[in-house]
Amino acid sequence: MRNRKVINSVLAIMIAFIMGGLMVLLSGDSPLETYSVLLKGSFGSLNALKNTIRYSIPVVLLAYSFSVCNQCGYFNISHESQMYSASLAIVMVSELTQGWPSWLRLILMMAAACMASIAACMIPAAAKFGLGVSEVVVGVMMNYLMAYLTKHMIAFSFIAQPGSSSIMSLPVSESVGAVSITVSTVVIILLYQFVMKKTIPGYRLSVVGRNPLFANASGLPSMRIMLSSAVVGGLLTGICAIGEMLGYYHIIYSDFAVDIGFNGMTAALLGAQNAIGMLLGSLLLGALKSGSVLLTVVTSVPAELVDCVKGFVMFFATVTFIRSDVWMRKGGK
User: Fold this and answer.
1) Which residues contact 238 (CB under 8 A, 6 or more apart)?
2) 50-89 tens-digit pLDDT
3) Tens digits of residue pLDDT in 293-327
4) In this structure, what are the phi and psi dihedrals at residue 253, rounded to the nearest 5 degrees?
5) Would you tell me how many other CB atoms lie within 10 Å of the CB of residue 37?
6) CB environment 216-243: b (16+ within 10 A), e (fewer)
7) What is Dmax (Cα atoms) for the chain?
8) Which residue ranges form the domains of the chain, and what is each CATH number?
């Protein structure tokens, strides 16, 4: 089964790059030159490698957030709403605690971001497990709701930056270093692998996800375990928002979290929800984003090509995921 998932992921990536190459060829450019520039822009220098790691980290965290929920039967598609909620919490706490000690402000901002993200993740989960409403529908609506609420907040509320040429929030002065963000991500990767593969909670989570009826018959509290997975998923997204806001942006601008959840979902599907596989899938997507900067400088190929390749990767990864899931449900026959 594991070999089959690996083959499916490799095929999804190969087909996506072939389709992207055909698009480049039809536009009159060289696919080989385009992909060589992408590779150079991703791994061709120390700065390129740093950028690839920088863009891969949020994808890794969101991939794990999606995976831990999905393995428990909750399709976590509301990452955008969680990112917006956590980011708004950070900026609001920053403005409400002006003059407080910096270390205390930092702790409060991190705590508020995690709680806001967990709350946003729990809403679709509660709708599914409590009311029987599809979490996908609620999650997508949450994404739109929080996107528009964020635009309103950074344009008209007390966190809006006055006199700016475009709508954005007031800046957050506190910061978290890139090294701390990277080390924290590595720790999360190791914890995820250990908990999911070596502990009883990880085993219970996978049992509930595969067969909730069997889990209930075995005495496992399925509802509590499912909601716990939503808490963990929201926490990971909150950590992602902390890294992005306090590590790099320090402001909220319009649509800053658009499609970020789909990158995490793509990495999770490519990695077959295995810790190492999701890390490699995230590195691929981070490399594409990092390489797209040099692509627009050196060639005439637009950076939107990278979005097309990522779209093809997600499409074929989803198709192979569904096929594998159907194959597994039929007993691997």
Assistant:
1) 82, 86, 113, 114, 115, 116, 117, 118
2) 999 999 999 999 999 999 998 888 899 999 999 999 999 9
3) 888 777 777 777 777 887 777 777 766 655 555 44
4) -120, 165
5) 21
6) eeeebebeebbbbbbbbbbbbbbbbbbb
7) 65
8) 2-329 (1.10.3470)
